[in-house]
Amino acid sequence: MKEMMLGIAASMFFAVTFILNRSMELSGGSWLWSSSLRFLFMVPFLVVIVLARKNMKQVLLEMIKNPLPWLGWSFIGFVLFYAPITYAAVYGPGWLVAGTWQLTIVAGTLLGPLFSRKVMTPSGMKTVRQRIPLLSLCISIFILSGVILIQTPNAQGLTPTLVLSGIIPVVLAAFSYPLGNRKMMEVCDGKLDTFQRVFGMTIATVPFWLLIAFAGYLQEGMPSSSQVFQSLIVAICSGIVATTLFFIATDRVRNHQGKLASVEATQSTQVLFVMAGEVMLFSSPLPKGTALLGLGIIVIGMVLHSLNQAGIGKKLHSTITAITKSEHQEGAPFKK
Known about the structure:
The chain is mainly alpha-helical and 336 residues long. Helix content is 77%, strand content 4%. It has one domain (2-324). The protein has helices at 2-26, 31-52, 56-65, 67-91, 94-101, 104-110, 134-151, 160-166, 168-188, 194-220, 225-252, 257-265, 270-282, 290-309, 312-331; strands at 116-121, 124-129. A two-stranded antiparallel ribbon has the order 1-2. Helix 2 (31-52) packs across helix 4 (67-91), helix 3 (56-65) packs across helix 10 (194-220) and helix 7 runs antiparallel to helix 14 (290-309). It starts with a helix and ends in a 5-residue tail after the last helix.
């Protein structure tokens, strides 16, 4: 339950990304600068945090030991996650990007078989392939249906161009983020804490962000002061606070696919925070009709995930099984 609360808190700060990215795009800022500045601004903050905790040397040694996994999975988890999201903001409003992004709650669950864990068996320690937690998957799909209902009233103006440019990139991001995050947890194997892992992944992707920033300079020139300031806010709220909270939550449950899926499903609450932010900042209309029904489904789905994470579903199943066996034994004919 604590991990899910951390996930919801992270979602609140993640929502800043969708709101400000759209704001920057509407004011004429380049998506190339929006994406690169967030991660470049994260570097000095993370350097200070890791130095203050006196564990900089350890993370650098781990990166030197496994440079290719760090570069590859960090690229997938950060670059292929954030660059497509900022690109999509050029073509689609915040509700569309945030709504499509919720595919990640199902994507994370479906990625289970790509990972394995070590278990003790009578014959010794063995590596076992993870399975898709079906109950968690069903709950996540239920939540996703609520997200779709929220988006339905706004979907009338969708065009083929908007689908290709505003939705497909976000689908790529929705799978890349949990894949990169989970693979990096596997690479670190508990040797590094959350701050070290976020710092290492950010440093590993700096060359890519510099290339993207250079492309932004060639295309648009230097960013405006407004875009720089808003990117700084995104870096602090989403890059530092939200990412750290979310990574702490996923680190704690990394060996339990069902609980990990529940934590990842908390990202569905981003839609609620984005809608609230757009109402307050952009005077967007309040949700009604099917949108309200969708909100209710998301809330119910999060409650179901909480119960599932607490193991209540398994306890209930065990209780029913025990009662059934007891009744069967009591009703069985007497044998001599």
